[in-house]
Amino acid sequence: MSRPTIFLIHSLIILIIFSLNTNAESKLLVFTSPPSTEEMAYISSQYNVSKLIHLGDNFYVLPGDFDEKLKLDSRNDWWMSEDTIVRKIKPVNPDPVAEIGNGCNPPPPGMGGNLTVDPGSVKFENTTNDIIVQTNVKSWGLDRIDQRSLPLSKTYDFDQNAGEGVDVYVIDTGININHVDFEGRASWGLTAVPNTTDNDLLGHGTFVAGIIGGKVFGVAKKVNLIAVKCLDDNGEGTLNNILYGFEFIINHHNNSKRPAIANLSFGTQRDKLVDMAVNQVVSAGITVVAAAGNGDQYGRPEDACLSSPAASKSAIAVGATLANDTIAPWSNIGPCVTLFAPGDNVMSDLACTNYNAGIESGTSFSAPYVSGIIALMLSKYNLNPQNVKTQLTQLATKNAVRGLSGTQSPNLLAYSQVQELETGGAASDKLLGIGGVIMFRIVSVFLLIEQLQLSTNGAPKKSFLYIPI
After folding, report:
1. Whole-model pTM?
2. Which CATH number fits domain 119-446: 3.40.50.200, 3.40.250.10, 3.40.50.11260, 3.30.930.10?
3. Which of 229, 286, 379, 381 has its CA 20 to 30 Å from the CA of residue 420?
4. Which of 159, 172, 271, 349 is catalytic?
């Protein structure tokens, strides 16, 4: 595989990402220090370029229609790249119960009954320990995460803060923000895809959002859900769409100052540019949760370390389990998986109306269970992304997942009773202190070092992003 060349001109280091596809005209230039006004003016005068994407002090990306004639101060050994194509993959189930993008199909007998969502009919009970209990829970995934072992209780216990004051950015196909399950807590943040509307016509993002924060199906029932549409109505887009989405959430978070999470239910073959961008998001103080992936085209599990953003060291990668606590046969595995969460035939909201729900499978829908749990943590404790990852794995149920022998994956099942962290030494605003702040700074430095190493170790090959549904 060809490799990029690093070159220095006027203190400007430019890495051009190489790709094997030579058909498309769109390419990406990645700058590790800001381009000067003169350089931007020159490039813009010669080529059709998009807005410069700024993801941090040492990370700038310029999409544009570049060719092999591009020269700056007679530099040599330039690598050109096609803008990576973003696309969804086939769903886990060949004939899914409620196929996303296929309308609101009724579920089969015994799998949820009438899936019309009525938040007003959901029953909640208060306890004496600041815990609220949701009764008659329909989704086994929500039922499972609040208890250490089977059988299911048909209830969901959660901390009364319920994610209040926390922002979750759903970087996906959008969200039907008018769905009744969101109770007005969902808002539209950005549409990064051209020629699309501010709506979720495919349904993937809405299903994800419902698991994170819907009143009926959600883990964190008071969280703010923010739609960041980086994939179009067919589940396709480009890498620069994703990067514009990352830029938006960093700026939004810097302005809001609220605790924040980014849910990434998509993936690609291992891509250093994606990993570098994820590091920037985490360095900005946003916890990143990624789907581990659904295996190859034949449904056979693959090593999550071979895909991005799951392989990013700063992300929390989530694999999927079945209702009997066995790893889903299609879930990706390996040491890059952080933990597992329910992902087979789980229930959430459909985008086709404002009141319907359905059943779906995939690590795309395991990740939002973990995003919801983190929202519960962040509404109760003052945690940076590194603390979140540590506390999340400490809280998780140990040795509950069956079928992990030989996978090199940690045997950790997501657990949502975040109040148990108080007796387990969680880093709260009282406990985090200066030591925790220093640790976060150290981690940020290591992420920067990793990014610089990625910049010099060669560019990623051409690959495809997809939604692992």
Report:
1. 0.85
2. 3.40.50.200
3. 286
4. 172
